[in-house]
Amino acid sequence: MSSHPIRAVLTDIEGTTSSIAFVKDVLFPFARSRLAGYVAEHGDEPAVAAALADARRLGGDETLDRDATVALLQSWIDADRKATPLKTLQGLIWEDGYRSGSLKGDIYPDAAEFLARWRNEGIALYVYSSGSVLAQKLIFGYTEFGDLTVLFSGFFDTTVGPKTDHASYAAIAEVADLPPFRMLFLSDNTAELDAAREAGFKTIALDRGEVVLPEGHGHPVAKDFSEIDALEGTLKA
User: pTM of the entire structure?
Assistant: First the structure.
């Protein structure tokens, strides 16, 4: 049993609390197919216009017209590029889908159960995903288990820094006002887990059978959230 019990859990989404298939086979195509129409209808709104301008700057050509900018963004979706303006626009499109009932947040039942249990036990919960904060709140806010956003104390996206940079996790620990060794990071990505461990976090790799974890990665492994409590007494006070 740890002499420094965990006081907060920081969790990834894709492959951890939610299936990779949902993100890649449902959310991404939903946003891609609606991107041009959404931009045509909302392109003059401040948040959308700012995201389009950011995309042009990031793409290296600020002279792109609206159609060319949409094509650029669609190419980023196809390449699974973690670009902040793309994530912003995807989040806005998904918001429409969730609110209309066209989308439902996909959360593993074990994740919903144990996140609620840990919160009830006084453990603070945070999310860190490459998807925008809006997208995170939507996937947890519109689930078959109800609105799970109430469980979380904070949401972080790539605006805090890359998920493979230890400085990002140090910044999150500072916001949480906890020493990193009192925080546990959950992910199916060992590069992210390595960065969190370098920052001082405890780590657990989720192996839900959707990705192949590299041998010798050195992180404790759980098949689902029900196994996390038992790993080295991590969440036992």
Answer: 0.86
